[in-house]
Amino acid sequence: MTATANREMRGDPDGLGALGARVVFDRIEKRYGAVVAVNDVSLDIAPGEFVTLLGPSGSGKTTTLMMLAGFEIPTAGEIYVDDDPIAAVPPYRRNIGMVFQNYALFPHMTVGENIAFPLQMRRMSRAEIASKTGEVLELVGLPGYEGRYPRQLSGGQQQRVAVARALVFNPRVLLMDEPLGALDKQLRERLQLEIKALHEQLGVTIIYVTHDQEEALIMSDRIAVMNEGLIEQFGQPTDLYDEPATRFVADFIGESNFIDGTLTQHDGATACVDVSGLGELHAPARPGYAAGTVVALTVRPEKIVAAENGSAPGMNAVAGVVEDVVFVGEMRRYVVRMPGGQRLVLKAQNRIGVQNFERGDPIRVCWNVADGRIV
Ligand SMILES: Nc1ncnc2c1ncn2[C@@H]1O[C@H](COP(=O)(O)OP(=O)(O)O)[C@@H](O)[C@H]1O
Ligand SMILES: [Mg+2]
């Protein structure tokens, strides 16, 4: 189906209107007795945006989605869809589609009956249901599959049907809670791209949940990193990777080194960190951190290179010993023990001109001061 046909199906033939809704969480809290599942969450999600809630198990992602869907009631705060508070709107009238990892299809119903279910709930005519079902199956790449039973489909096809069922009533918001979690890596990667393409085609606002940071980086316009019910940072994938606001974010997204030390001085542009047994390292200053604060200097492994003697301005240089080396095909991953005992991981591309080191070799490594962050 073409994008134009889709817009016609969705009542927006010119594609002028924003099809997705704006979603605002305003200081939302959810307690279960003494457990604070969601703690003062505020998010402003733009119409048509693809936002991912990313965090470890138990961080409050599902609870956050359930409150938007209407299956849980916030203890405090308000949620708005297109500027209307939704607290008083029952779930079935919120016009929100949902796909869950374990929200299986009804096994005794055909694909067509599964997809028709939300439309029957909305009392649509038989002819209209048949036509909508056919259109949405085409949209997810399963034209003509109406008569199949879920057991006759692969895992990936079943999730496509679940997506079709969630989209068939033209919701303005689509919630997806770990929808690819049960699929193998190759299929997961394919469906990630398919969901992204669907999003671009339809313009629906998607709020997606995953604990897989790579999946979040690939798919999202913006990512909210959750930890223990709190949002640690909300930003674009590149912001989170390059400018992690907290140690948790730096650790959870990509791989990071953390060198523990004490902030000794802050001259406005550059911060000095005194590292026990090693001396001073430098990083861009971070407002709000006073001298004497115990901090970590974080730097990504791919920013660190082995270098010859001599120190360049604007670089941190450390002499150490290779403690471990792992060959990973396109690169070698070194663990370097620094004076004072702390360790650094660096990744060296497997290509001409890059020197290889063995375990026990002395090594001198350096990185740009600008590539470090204080957390
Ligand atoms: N119905 C419930 N009763 C009590 N505690 C709950 C309930 N639902 C979730 N929790 C708790 O709230 C926290 C967040 O859970 P959840 O939102 O499911 O996290 P996630 O989806 O990120 O894994 C967890 O500590 C969980 O045990
Ligand atoms: Mg969950």
Q: Overview of this structure, please?
A:
The protein has 375 residues and is α+β, with helices and mostly antiparallel strands. It has helices at residues 3-9, 61-69, 111-121, 126-139, 155-167, 185-202, 213-219, 237-242, 247-252; strands at residues 23-32, 35-45, 50-54, 76-81, 84-85, 96-100, 173-177, 205-210, 222-227, 230-235, 257-266, 270-275, 279-284, 294-299, 305-306, 315-327, 331-337, 343-349, 362-368, 373-374. The protein folds into two domains: 3-247, Rossmann fold, CATH 3.40.50.300; 255-374, RNA polymerase II/Efflux pump adaptor protein, barrel-sandwich hybrid domain (OB fold (Dihydrolipoamide Acetyltransferase, E2P)), CATH 2.40.50. The protein is built from nine helices and 20 strands. The strands form four sheets. A six-stranded mixed beta sheet has the order 6-7-8-3-9-10, with helices on both faces. Strands 13-12-11-14-20 form a five-stranded antiparallel beta sheet. α3 crosses α4, α3 runs parallel beside α5 (155-167) and α4 (126-139) crosses α5 (155-167). The longest helix has 18 residues, at 185-202. The relative contact order is 0.12. The model is unreliable at 13-18 (pLDDT under 50). The structure holds adenosine-5'-diphosphate and magnesium ion (MG). Adenosine-5'-diphosphate binds next to β2 and α2.
